[in-house]
Write a structure and sequence with these properties.
alpha+beta, three-stranded antiparallel β-sheet, SET_dom_sf, SET domain-containing protein, single chain, 2 domains, signal, SET_dom, 431 residues, SET_domain_protein, binds 2-acetamido-2-deoxy-beta-D-glucopyranose
Length: 431
């Protein structure tokens, strides 16, 4: 599974948009996927460096050949590499970055889960300064089994994640740190990149390494297997303003659905990918997330899934293209009206309630922060501070699941909740 951090820029609800009442409802969705960088094929050359020769043989990597480098590794571990347990292996300086990239492994990270990061020396220091590394309590409850799921191979779907028990709104499904994080570059050639990423994987503790290597891949070529797995399983993580690819082995088992029953977000400071339930799930039902923005027109979503994830989307919201696109259109029209703060606006609590219903009808419970937000404003605008508070509260709840607490969107609703009557929206449509 590929993708990704979705930055939902909620420009339309910012008070500044009041200035121009006809400002378009702007929801910019920035996403990028590694599929923009083609995986080319090539054969491995044996390396000059004897220690790493072994790393080039993937079968050997899966089995225990890695152990033959144990001696040098153990002596490395005794040396001082700061927060890292292994000597960083570095590329030459890359023109496009103005720095070299190195493999930084901490095999004792998070109680022995381990982590390997391929990044610049400067960014490596930034990673090491994150609470994930510095604060012993930061990852409490992370990288532990939640008891909510099991995996099974489903016909035509590969491995899927299923509910182990009845799950309700808000239940945690997973919370894991990545096995591998890699700087997003396109300067290294495939073979060179594979060499470093293999070092990164080989230095992980056995369980984490095996978890990584058992993931799905797209092309099936062994000599580029580590990249092939990244391609099929990556999320993007922004650290220090720089995109990194991140692979979370457990989380990768979540398949795509157009009407997902779970929502995820990444917390960069904890380097953790969190997944929570957005509507009741029965035992043995599949747990799903959306790999695309669910409000894009069907054709765009299908294209994205095809080019990024190599599958054709056949779930109901893809098959019933006409109906789905009509609803999406309706949602956009409603949002436009609700975002119109001019004297002639038709925005009202009734329209907001209708918007909420449409999202539910589409199975987009995990994206309800937008209609909840509009409802909070619409109720406040007619002077119903009580309902405004209720919806602002609910918007925050979904934002926590979808974007995490660090998102600026949280502030919008915290502001309203502080004192609805002092909020810019209060009484604005009372006439
Ligand atoms: C590895 O990460 C842990 C945090 O999980 C940290 O306490 C430790 O100092 C780091 N470095 C080494 C060399 O273990």
């Amino acid at each position: 599974m590929c993708l990704i951090l979705l930055f939902l820029i909620f420009v339309s609800l910012l008070p500044t948009s009041l200035a121009s009442s006809d400002s378009p409802s702007t929801q910019a969705l920035i996403q990028q996927c590694w599929h923009e960088y083609p995986l080319t094929t090539a054969l491995f050359q044996s390396s000059q460096n004897g220690e790493h020769d072994i790393v080039f043989q993937l079968n050997g990597l899966i089995q225990s050949t890695v152990h033959s480098t144990q001696d040098s590794r153990e002596s490395s571990a005794r040396s001082n590499y700061g927060p890292w347990t292994h000597q960083p292996a570095c590329t030459k300086v890359l023109q496009s970055i103005g720095s070299n990239l190195c493999v930084y492994t901490n095999s004792s990270f998070s109680n022995g889960r381990g982590i390997s990061i391929f990044t610049t020396p400067t960014l490596a220091n930034q990673f090491a300064a994150l609470p994930a590394f510095m604060d012993p309590a930061a990852l409490d409850g992370v990288n532990t089994f939640s008891g909510a799921w099991y995996t099974e191979t489903l016909p035509g779907k590969g491995v899927a994640m299923l509910a182990k028990k009845k799950l309700k709104f808000g239940d945690r499904v997973t919370a894991y740190t990545p096995a591998l994080i890699a700087y997003l570059e396109d300067e290294l050639d495939t073979i060179e990149r594979e060499k470093y990423w293999r070092i990164a994987i080989s230095q992980l503790p056995e369980d984490t390494r095996n978890g990584y290597l058992s993931l799905a891949y797209i092309y099936g070529q062994e000599n580029i297997r580590v990249q092939d797995i990244v391609k099929a399983n990556t999320f993007q993580l922004d650290i220090g303003g720089q995109n990194h690819l991140a692979v979370f082995p457990e989380t990768s088992r979540l398949n795509h659905a157009c009407s997902p029953n779970a929502q995820y977000h990444l917390d960069p400071s904890l380097l953790t990918h969190f997944v929570a339930v957005t509507r009741p799930i029965s035992p043995n039902e599949e747990i799903t997330i959306s790999y695309t923005s669910p409000l894009e027109p069907t054709e765009i979503r299908q294209q994205h899934l095809q080019s990024g994830f190599h599958f054709s989307c056949t779930c109901p919201r893809c098959s019933a293209k006409r109906t789905t696109d009509k609803t999406i259109q309706q949602i956009q029209t409603l949002q436009k009206s609700l975002n119109d703060w001019s004297a002639t606006s038709s925005g009202s609590p009734k329209l907001a309630e209708k918007l909420i219903q449409l999202y539910r009808k589409e199975g987009l419970e995990g994206f309800l922060d937008v209609p909840y937000g509009f409802a909070a404003l619409a109720y406040n605008a007619v002077g119903d501070a009580k309902r405004a508070e209720k919806y602002a509260q609910q918007a925050r709840e979904i934002i926590l699941m979808k974007d995490g607490k660090w998102t600026p969107n949280m502030q919008l609703w915290s502001e309203l909740l502080r004192d609805p009557r002092a909020h810019w929206s209060y009484g604005r449509r009372k006439r």
